[in-house]
Amino acid sequence: MSGTGSNAFSYLVGTLIDLYIAAVLLRLLLQWVRADFYNPVCQFLVKVTNPVIVPMRRVIPSIGRLDTSSVVLMVVLEFFSVWIASRISSSPLAIEQIFMFSLVKLVATLLMTYFFLIIASVILSWVGAQMRHPVIPLVYQLTEPVLRPFRKVIPPIAGLDLSPLFALIAIRFLLLLIGW
Questions:
Q1: pLDDT at 150
Q2: 180 vs 117, which has greater pLDDT?
Q3: Radius of gyration of the chain (CA)
Q4: 40-72 burial string, b = 16+ CB within 10 Å, else e?
C-alpha cells in the first residue's frame, strides 16, 4: 500500500475505533454518575455498545461500581488501534510501548472528554437554561463530580462560579503532565 493509502487507512480505522471508544467511555461515565437510563442519549449509547459489552460481562465481572468489561473493551480497542497505526508506520513499536501508549491515550481521552464537557456546561449555563434538550441534564450530571471538589475549595465570588475555570486548568495541567 502506498504512503498516502496507508495514511488514509490508518486514519479511517483509528477514527472509527476512537468513536466507539468514546461511546463506551461515555456509557461508563453515565453509569458512574447514575444518569437517567431512559434519556435518549443513554439509550443510544446502550444500543451501540451492548452487542460487545453484554457478552463480555458474562466473562468479566464488575468490580464494585466499575464496569470492568467496559474498561477492558476500551483498552483492547485502543491497543488494536495503536497496533494498526504502528504496523502501518515506518517504525513499528514494541508490544510494551503499544500498551503504555494505549493507556496514556485512554487517560488523555478521559481528560479531554471532561475538558469539553466542562466547557459545554459553562456555555449551557449562559444560554441553555431554558432549553429542553436531553443532552443538557447529562452534561451537568457528568461534570458535577469533577466540579464538586473545586466548589468546596473555591466559593462563588459575587455569584460567579469559578470552579469550571480551575477544573479546566487542572485538566490541562494533567494533560501536559502525561505529555498530551
A1: 94
A2: 117
A3: 19
A4: ebbeebbebbeeebeeeeeebeeeeeebebbbe
How large is the average pLDDT for residues 20-38? Answer: 93
Distances (CA, A) of 7 to 20, 80, 84, 106: 20, 16, 11, 22
What's the 3-state SS for the chain?
A: CCHHHHHHHHHHHHHHHHHHHHHHHHHHHHHHCCCCCCCHHHHHHHHHHHHHHHHHHHHCCCECCECHHHHHHHHHHHHHHHHHHHHHCCCCCCHHHHHHHHHHHHHHHHHHHHHHHHHHHHHHHHHCCCCCCCHHHHHHHHHHHHHHHHHHHCCCECCECCHHHHHHHHHHHHHHHCCC
- pTM beyond 0.70: yes
